[in-house]
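Worked example 4.2. Below are the chains of a multi-component assembly; read each line carefully before continuing.
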Amino acid sequence: MPISGPSYSLLELCENIKVVLHSNYSNFYWVRAEINTLNHYPASGHCYPDLVEKQNGSIVAQMRANLWKEDYSKINATFLKVLKEPLRDGIKVLMLVNIQFHPVYGLSLNIKDMDPAFSLGDLEQEKQRCILSLKEEGLFARNRALPKPWLPQRIALISDASSKGYGDFTKVLAEAGQQWGYGFYFHLFPAVLQGDRAVITIQEQLLKIQKVKVHFDVVALVRGGGGEVGMACYNNLELNRALTTFPLPVLTGIGHASNLTVAEQIAWHNAITPTKLAEWLVQQFHNLSVPLQKCEETLKKYGLEVVSDAKQDLQHALRLLVATARNRQVIHLSEWQQAVQKLSSSTRYLTKHHHNLLEQNRQQLAQGLAVCCRSEILSLDQSIKQLLTAFKQKIGNQKQNVDFLSAQVQNLNPEQVLKRGFSIVYQGAKPLTNTEEINPDIPLNIRMFRGALSAQPIEINHSNELI
Amino acid sequence: MSTKENYKASFDELQKIVAEMESGEIGVDELADKVKRASVLIQKCKEILGKTEVDVQKILDGLDED
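Applying the procedure described above to all two chains together yields the following C-alpha cells:
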C-alpha cells in the first residue's frame, strides 16, 4: 500500500494516544471489577492487580492496574477493619481509578481508593450464594441431621497448635479431666485456619480424618486469636460442602464475633469460642454423669430398702419353708412308718409263705426222690436177680457140661474097659492092635484089670473070628 | 489168672482131651495120663462152679433179705 500522509514513530504515536487519553479521561472514575490476582510484592509494597470482569464465568474485560504502596496500605487497613478481610485474589471491588497510558507499560489503571462497603456486600452475596447452593443441594442441614454421639469423647481437632484457641480449648478439657476425671481424647490435625489457604488445608485434614473416622466421635474446628480477619474462607462453598457432608458431627469454635459464617451455621454444634466449645463438651459429660450419680444415689438409697425388704421376705419365706418342711417331714415320717410297717408285715407274710412253699416243695421232692429211688432199687434188684438167676442157670449148664465130659472121660478110661473084661496085649513095650504085628517067637504080655500074664502065641488068625 | 480165665482154660483143655480120647488115636499109656489130667481138670472146674454158685446164691439171699 503506498504511503499517503505523514508517518509517526511508535513513541510519537504513544505520546499522541497518551495526550488524547489523558485529555479525554482526565478525571477519576469509580470502576467495578474483580481482582483476579492481586500481585502484591512485599519487598516494594506495591501491587499490580490483574483486574477482570466476568460474565457467566468468562472474562469479558481485563486490564492491568497499579496500586502503590501507600494506597495499598490505606485500603487494606480499611478492608481489614470493615470486611475483616484483607485485599486478596477473587474479591470484587469498587475502586477509584484514573487512566494512565505509558509508552512502554501501555494502558493501566491507577487505583487510588476502594469502597469497602461494595466488597462487603459482595462478600455477603457470596455467603448467601453459598447458603443457597447448599440448600438447593440438600446439604445445608446434612451434618446437623447426624445422630447425637452418646458421649463426644474422642475428638479429631482441626486447629493450629500455636493458636490461642487451641490452648484455651485443650486447657478446659484438661481441667475437666483433673476436676471430674473426664477422659477426653483428642488428636490434632493441623491446618491454616484463616485466609485463602484455610480452604485447602482444612479440606486436606478432613480427608485424613475420614480415613480414621472410626477412632473419633466428633470433628472440632477450633480457631481463636490472631485477629478476626480472613474469615471469609468459612463461607467457601467447597469447604462447606466438605464439612456438612462429613460423616462425623462437626463442631465449630472459631471465635468469630460478627455474623455467623456458613461453616458455623451448618455445624452440628457451634460455640462462640474454643473455650465455650470445650465447656459444651464437658457439659455433655456432665449430662451423662449427673443422671448416673443420681442413679447411683437412688440405687444406694432404694437398693438398701430393696435389700431390707428382700431380707424380710427371705426370712418370711425361710420360716414358711421351715414350717412347711417340718409339716411335710411329719407327714412323710408317718407315711414312711406306715410304709415300713406295711413292708415289714408283707415281708414277714411273704417270707413265711415262701418258707412254707419251700418246705412243701422240699417234702414233695424228698418223697418223689424216695419213691423214685425205691423204684430204681427194686428195679435194680430185679435186674440183679434176673442176672444172677441167669448166671446160676449158666453155672448149672456148665456143671452138666463138666459132668458129661467127666462121664465121657470115665467111659474112655482104659481101666474101665479092662474092668469090663478087655485086656491089653503087649509084645515088648508096644500094645498090639493087629495080629500081623505079632512075632510068633516072642512071648506076649497080657494085662488085665487086675494082674498080667505072659503067653506064647500058638496060632495066629488074622481074621476077627474067635478061634 | 482170674477165676473166669482159670475156668475157661480148664474147660477148654478138658474138651480137647475128651475129643482126643474119643478119636481113638491115643495109645493106652498116653490115655491113662490124659484121664488123670482130665480128672484134675474136672475137679477144678467143679470147684470153681461150685464156689461161684455159692457166691451167687449168697447175693440172691442178700437181695431177698433187703
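Take a moment to check your reading of the output against the notes. The domain at 10-114 of chain A is CATH 2.40.50.140 (OB fold (Dihydrolipoamide Acetyltransferase, E2P)). The interface with chain B takes residues 381, 384-385, 388-389, 391-392, 395-396, 398-399, 401-402, 405-406, 408-409, 412-415, 424, 431 of chain A (CB under 8 Å).
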